[in-house]
Amino acid sequence: MTHDITLSLQEAQALSRRILRHAGFGTGHVEAITQSVVAAQRDECHSHGLYRLLGCVETAKMGGLDPQAVPEVIDQAPGIVRVDARYGSSLLAFEQGLAPLREKAERNGIAVLAINHCFHFSALWSEVEALSGMGLAGLAMNPTHAFVAPAGGVRALLGTNPFAFSWPRPGGNPYTFDFATSVVARGEIELHRRAGKSIPDNWALDDRGQPTTDPTAALEGAMLTFGSHKGSALSTMIELLAGPLIGDALSHETQAANAAGTGRPCHGELVIALSPKTFLGEQCEAGLLHAERLFEEMLGQGARLPSQRRFQARSRSLKEGVSIPAALYRDLQALAGEDGKAD
Amino acid sequence: MTHDITLSLQEAQALSRRILRHAGFGTGHVEAITQSVVAAQRDECHSHGLYRLLGCVETAKMGGLDPQAVPEVIDQAPGIVRVDARYGSSLLAFEQGLAPLREKAERNGIAVLAINHCFHFSALWSEVEALSGMGLAGLAMNPTHAFVAPAGGVRALLGTNPFAFSWPRPGGNPYTFDFATSVVARGEIELHRRAGKSIPDNWALDDRGQPTTDPTAALEGAMLTFGSHKGSALSTMIELLAGPLIGDALSHETQAANAAGTGRPCHGELVIALSPKTFLGEQCEAGLLHAERLFEEMLGQGARLPSQRRFQARSRSLKEGVSIPAALYRDLQALAGEDGKAD
């Protein structure tokens, strides 16, 4: 029998802060990580929610990320802000790069935030939504660890390399998507394994490079990209732009450290911001209204917009708080240490 | 019985120039279009090769594009060059925007070329390869006409919206991909129809929004995107960035004119250039060599890189010239008018 514990967003934040402080995270990291995991929990993205704190604390203990890292913000070029996360979480690096990124995007029309040497465990939608919340269109991508074979290949080489985009909508939630370039999330295969179910034959290869429907063989082999060679191409682009272009690692170079649980070497992240105001000037409002026609046509024919379910969850959580399994709540409390009962 | 005519690249160019001049294209357009169709023919991309001149000339006759259009280059912002193609071919607009795009990308690290009101009939790989040929990474995308249903939808709304990327490789052909976000090219369904073959059930919907294996029903209905909701999301992003962001049309707004063969309203195109030199400074060469490790790993496990077949064709054509069906050659000669026999 399982039951859930309901927390208000404030209670969830307080719990997260206690855990992170107890694990030795610096104040900036405590806030940035808390904002991220509570936003994910609020949107019912459970795997990026409070649950993620367990791994985050464990990785800090193993020395895989530096909980006290002080990001260094570098004005690389008129259109590039670079933030060296110095082996800390990507989230504080993103937060510190956001204002200069906005300033550069609004001045130039387009700008990049390149984050180096970051430990990355968060979803990208919250970052691109930070941009659309400022009236910018945002793109984000990063390599991960080598779990995915390139199209036509036989071994894991590419990461699950997420790609996210958000577009500002007047008076409403933004248009946002955030997807892995692997055909499914790795956790999905793990769920099939636990349930004793086979997987479709286009999800993964076994360790001899043959398509498999056995989830255990898949986890020991390589996942496949979504959309065959097109998804593989997109994933390769992400490796290049969020790797060598910014002087950072490729997914296959971080795999050994990931498998060992030590986190390092970490990798990079690339965020691109485009400013509709700079593109359109006085026609900006008209341009954003023009985009609405596309969404109206989609909804009018019964298509869903990506993230709709997440926005519904958000609306619900803002009123009712968030629910997590009691067992997870106990595990989190145990990490909160002596000050576990007070904020 | 069919046979082929072999032309040297110079002969192919001369033929293209005669056709375009005879159809009243201005000198700049003659050169830009000739470079594009002969490059495609050289790479054995037949549908974008000399064959494309037939449609190009026909559209000019119908008033769908202006063969004498003079593009206007606008310095929109430090990171944006905008070119109003004024209802001419996109190719001359791209050519005129290329130098300022390069200059902005090298100064800022990233820059955009936004082309407005262009008639678009060329493949994007030649444009992103123009960028990688200058040592830049290039991305290009454009809406087309509404042939594709969004994920979960029932009617055509999105274009086949191509997405292309090229990355400079030291001493060799670039890493380039260029794919439609529809599951296949529309011509592929047409080929199945002609051959009396059924199509896979994930390619298209009939006019009632139901999956169909009948190519005729598919052509009257809507194509699907590659990679299900992920491809649909990517296609939607292309609509937004190469449409409303640059003050230009969505695919469904150009559909009626396309069906009528009049071409207008035309649409836009978005090109993004990123400068490795500006990102990496003195580490640029090392960064490009670092990227090579990814390609080596791919090739080492038997995966192909996209465009490899095209580069092989290029190498062959540079030596042996290009071959086109005799019937196409006759049709092209007929368009070349009185000066059809001399350059």
From TrEMBL, chains A, B:
The keyword 4Fe-4S does not apply. The keyword Cell inner membrane does not apply. InterPro entries: Mal/L-sulf/L-lact_DH-like_ah (IPR043144), Mal/L-sulf/L-lact_DH-like_NADP (IPR043143), Mal/L-sulfo/L-lacto_DH-like_sf (IPR036111), Malate/L-lactate_DH-like (IPR003767). Transmembrane segments: none annotated. Pfam families: Ldh_2. Keywords: Oxidoreductase. Belongs to the LDH2/MDH2 oxidoreductase family. This is Oxidoreductase. It comes from Kushneria pakistanensis.
